[in-house]
Amino acid sequence: SAMNSKAKPGFARLLIKIEDRVLQWVPLIPGKYLSKWSYPAVGMAAPLLDNFYYCLENIERRTLRKASQVAVENISVPLFLQLHRWYRENEFSSLNGDISYHANLKHIKTPWLVIAGSVDGLTPLPDVYYGYDQIRSRDKKFLVFGKEFGHKADYGHLDLVLGRHAPREVYPQVLDWLNAHDPWVNGKRMKKCA
Q: How far apart are CA 161 and CA 63, in angstroms?
């Protein structure tokens, strides 16, 4: 996820306009219910979110429909308000504001792999790279998936996991990185992806 919101994609601009006091009237945002209700229309509406949540050339519409049925959850209003504040103030911090995640990125020393989609409109490259750049680990790697980087298609946000080319292009890179850093899982070496 992004640790910055300077790129201000349309989602962030819309989020900033929502008034906190409007949301305080509801206990949660019913994402799960809305997704299950609207999943038949996901295939038809897919072009509206192309190069935002996903890149249509890299994701099947049936995968989008299935994901909208099983992978969307309700969002608590306190969590949403925290995200809202992050984008509004460009300061990612704890719910009570006492801990700045921005300020503490420099304290991360563990190995770090960051992956990003070339056309991700939800979490644009500059915002993802900001977090990577601030982390002070000596062992870190930044991978961008998209045509410009030698891949078969561009990648949005969801297609890094659900994209038709992800099993051959993304998963092996992540698996290789994991194997290089901890080759044994439950006493067995992890297997290569197909």
A: 11
d(CA 62, CA 154): 19
**């910055």: which residue's tokens?**
4
CB 110 within 8 A of CB 137: yes
- Read off the pLDDT of residues 91-137 as tens digits, 9 standing for 90 and up: 888 888 899 998 999 999 999 999 999 999 888 888 899 989 999 99
User: Which range has the top average pLDDT, 23-32, 55-64, 72-81, 163-172?
Assistant: 163-172
* pTM for the full predicted model: 0.81
- Token readout for 188 is 């067995």
Please list the residues that pair with 142 across neighbouring strands. Answer: 114
State the residue for tokens 């049936």.
Answer: 62
| DSSP letter string, 7-34 | S--HHHHHHHHS-HHHHTTSSEE-HHHH
Instruction: Return all residues near 19 (Cβ < 8 A) that are at least 6 apart.
Output: none
- For β-strands 112-117 and 140-145, DSSP reports them as parallel
Task: Locate 10 and state its tokens.
Answer: 């349309």
